């Protein structure tokens, strides 16, 4: 399943969520560790855009559709004008089976972090996943992060090599 393209109004919602998550960090002293909840979920959201046929890919498509609908409604109500035309679509690439393993493990890590997180961190994580899965379907963001699937693929290949060549001892 190919997710829909992000519209200009969907972009407005995505940028609003991005701003709402980055502004407190910026005003609060720029501590890198405070970006971890948002950033880890952003990476997972970005990765979901290359998970064709899986539940992550389906969720990414649903997120883009929701952003487009919400953005169209919000922008239309506020300004009286809303654009339904999609922005230029992009793709970061494809996952190998080894890369899929890394994305699966990342998903498990983010889910476990979500369960252990305070409510404020859960909101940041939701915002990160939303921004990652919506922004990374555009040509610009996909181009900026086109190295990400390669990183997952290489990491998975290295993990496989370690397990296969170590006689089962890590």
Walk me through what this model shows.
With 170 residues, the chain is mostly helical. It has one domain. The chain has helices at 8-27, 36-48, 55-79, 97-116, 119-135, 139-144, 148-165. Helix 2 (36-48) packs antiparallel against helix 4 (97-116). The longest helix has 25 residues, at 55-79. The termini are far apart.
Summarize the main sheet.
none
The structural class is mainly alpha
Count every beta strand, where a strand is a DSSP E run of 2 or more residues: 0
Q: Unreliable segments (pLDDT under 50, ≥5 consecutive)? A: none
Strand content: under 5%
Order of helices and strands: HHHHHHH
Helix content: over 70%
Shape: globular
Compute the separation of the termini in Å: 37 Å
Please tell me the overall pLDDT: 93
Q: Please state the CA-atom Rg, rounded to the nearest Å.
A: 17 Å
Oligomer: single chain
Number of helices: 7
Domains (count): 1
How would you summarize the topology of this molecule?
Elements: H1 8-27, H2 36-48, H3 55-79, H4 97-116, H5 119-135, H6 139-144, H7 148-165
Helix pairs in contact: 1-3, 1-5, 2-4, 2-5, 4-7
Q: What can be said about this structure in brief?
A:
With about 170 residues, the chain is mainly alpha-helical. It is built from seven helices and no strands.
Summarize this structure as a short list of keywords or feature phrases:
170 residues; mainly alpha
């Amino acid at each position: 399943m190919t997710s829909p393209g992000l519209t200009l109004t969907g972009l407005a919602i995505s940028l609003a969520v991005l701003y709402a998550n980055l502004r407190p960090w910026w005003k609060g002293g720029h501590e890198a560790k405070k970006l971890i909840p948002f950033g880890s979920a952003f990476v997972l959201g970005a990765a979901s855009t290359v998970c064709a046929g899986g539940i992550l890919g389906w969720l990414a498509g649903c997120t883009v559709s929701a952003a487009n609908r919400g953005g169209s409604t919000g922008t239309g109500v506020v300004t009286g004008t809303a654009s339904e035309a999609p922005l230029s679509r992009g793709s970061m690439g494809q996952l190998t089976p080894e890369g899929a393993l890394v994305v699966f493990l990342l998903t498990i890590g983010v889910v476990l972090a979500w369960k252990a997180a305070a409510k404020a961190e859960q909101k940041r994580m939701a915002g990160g996943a939303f921004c990652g899965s919506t922004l990374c379907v555009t040509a610009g963001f996909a181009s900026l992060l086109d190295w990400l699937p390669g990183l997952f693929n290489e990491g998975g290949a290295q993990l496989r090599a370690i397990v296969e060549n170590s006689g089962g001892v890590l």
